């Protein structure tokens, strides 16, 4: 069953999608890593494409996005996204040179089926930008809103499960998060805690929509207090100057047997 706006996820992007692009811009360091992983493929399918972040401008990209709200957020310079889900890709076998999915696989209703479809329509590498749920609790947010971190951990599939579903030769690379990361997922604010006091910044992270208003209120009250009296900085001051944070972000790169680099 799809959400009200057509998305096949546990979050209704008709509610959370507007303004998403303002806070969730492509981080250049991540974009560079994705581009390298795509290799020399000139045709790429981006599944769960959202507002188009990380679509490489120098390649022929076909975007797939089931959420009407997120399709509407796509810049005019990008091609319109196809209304379809990962589990039912409307393409022939081996259509594309590579496939990508960024911050998307945790939204799919049937992970293995979706990944099998990516492999079916792709001749070369399948590149997945996701979070390792085993690493999410390293982030300080768990001290203030454990319900949000727990919700994320329940949604993100284990990396070994992704490996098994993709088959072929699979590599997993940790992606350190830069201090001024412009892709505003929760961990992007590891050294800028004040940013998460902005309700629009939280709204751009769908996990916040899975918890009640009481969690938002408690988070804002407690973090505001701890920033004002120095409690947060006493515990986490080093993060304000850390150039990168080794959080939960990973890049999973799977290549068919015979195409290993």
Automatic annotation (TrEMBL):
Keywords: Methyltransferase, Transferase. One of its GO terms (biological process) is methylation. Residues 1-11 have a biased composition (Low complexity). One of its GO terms (molecular function) is S-adenosylmethionine-dependent methyltransferase activity. It comes from the Bacteria. SUPFAM superfamilies: S-adenosyl-L-methionine-dependent methyltransferases (SSF53335). Residues 1-25 are annotated as: Disordered. Gene3D superfamilies: Vaccinia Virus protein VP39 (3.40.50.150). InterPro entries: Methyltransf_11, SAM-dependent_MTases_sf. Residues 46-123 form the Methyltransferase type domain. Coiled coil: none annotated. This is SAM-dependent methyltransferase.
């Amino acid at each position: 069953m799809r959400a009200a706006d057509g998305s096949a996820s546990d979050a209704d992007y008709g509610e959370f999608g507007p303004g998403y692009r303002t806070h969730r811009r492509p981080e250049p360091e991540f974009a560079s890593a994705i581009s390298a992983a795509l290799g020399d493929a000139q045709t790429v399918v981006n599944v769960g494409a959202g507002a188009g972040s990380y679509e490489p401008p120098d390649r022929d990209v076909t975007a797939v996005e089931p959420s009407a709200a997120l399709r509407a957020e796509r810049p005019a310079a990008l091609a319109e996204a196809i209304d379809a889900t990962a589990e039912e890709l409307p393409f022939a076998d081996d259509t594309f040179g590579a496939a990508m999915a960024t911050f998307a696989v945790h939204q799919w209703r049937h992970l293995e089926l979706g990944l099998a479809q990516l492999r079916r329509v792709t001749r070369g590498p399948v590149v997945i930008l996701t979070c390792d749920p085993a690493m999410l609790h390293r982030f300080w947010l768990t001290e203030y809103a454990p319900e949000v971190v727990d919700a994320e951990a329940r949604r993100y599939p284990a990396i070994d499960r992704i490996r098994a579903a993709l088959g072929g030769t699979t590599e997993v690379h940790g992606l350190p998060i830069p201090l001024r990361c412009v892709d505003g997922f929760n961990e992007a604010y590891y050294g800028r805690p004040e940013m998460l006091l902005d309700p629009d910044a939280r709204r751009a992270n769908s996990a916040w929509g899975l918890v009640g208003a009481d969690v938002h209120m408690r988070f804002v009250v407690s973090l505001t207090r701890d920033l004002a009296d120095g409690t947060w900085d006493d515990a986490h001051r080093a993060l304000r100057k850390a150039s990168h944070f080794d959080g939960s972000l990973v890049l999973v790169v799977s290549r068919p047997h015979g195409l290993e680099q």
